[in-house]
Amino acid sequence: MKKLLYILTILCQTSLLAQTNYPQDYFIDPLDINLVLAGTFAELRANHFHSGLDIKTQQREGLKVYACADGFVSRIKISHGGYGKALYITHPNGYTTVYAHLQKFAPKIEAYIKEHQYGQESYEIEVFPGAVELLVKQGDVVAYSGNSGGSEGPHLHFEIRDNEERPINPMLFGIDIKDTTKPIIKEVYAYPISDDAHINQTNEMCKLR
């Protein structure tokens, strides 16, 4: 029953999101290359749904990362794991864009965070700049792509969140992703919908293909 309620909750949330009119042409792409994905929004991970897009960076680090719209840097976090070096930009329309696994920040932001690191005597740090401290314009270089944190290869993790910090699929905002690769179904599994349900006389997950 818990599984059923969880699935119904996800479906209801997806239905509500589909009815929302998200601004088109407000955000530009965060990278100046053809965007190819290594990971999609809401795909299953080990213990969570993926909250953004993983954009390939041509197996390289150091690509310029651009502010997708006007706004201000509202959060900077650096950690050994997780998102590694991550930057959050809040925009006038209430949305926040997130850029993670970065190599480094733009010089002004880099100087700002280093001052706080030395002040706190810590490499790992999280700060929340004020609304007028680190203003950015659409198209400004705010960082450089990398492989920091819990990343397994160079890429940019990119998110768009609403004003309640809920992640939204960036592709709903018109982020241009061209995918011409056909999916390949490797395995198919069925899950019992409740504790009383059975598949092939078992209450366990069952491989169908």
Our count of helices gives 2
The CATH class turns out to be Mainly Beta
Count structural domains. 1
Average pLDDT figure: 88
Q: Class by helix and strand content?
A: alpha+beta
Instruction: Determine the CATH topology.
Output: Glucose Permease (Domain IIA)
Largest sheet properties:
11 strands, antiparallel
CATH architecture: Distorted Sandwich
Instruction: Using the alpha-carbon principal axes, give the shape.
Output: globular
Q: What does it look like?
A:
With 209 residues, the protein is an alpha+beta fold. 15% of the residues lie in helices and 27% in strands. It has 2 helices and 13 strands. A hairpin with a 5-residue loop joins strand 5 (85-90) and strand 6 (96-105). The longest helix is centred in the first third of the chain and has 17 residues, at 2-18. The chain starts with a helix and ends with a strand.
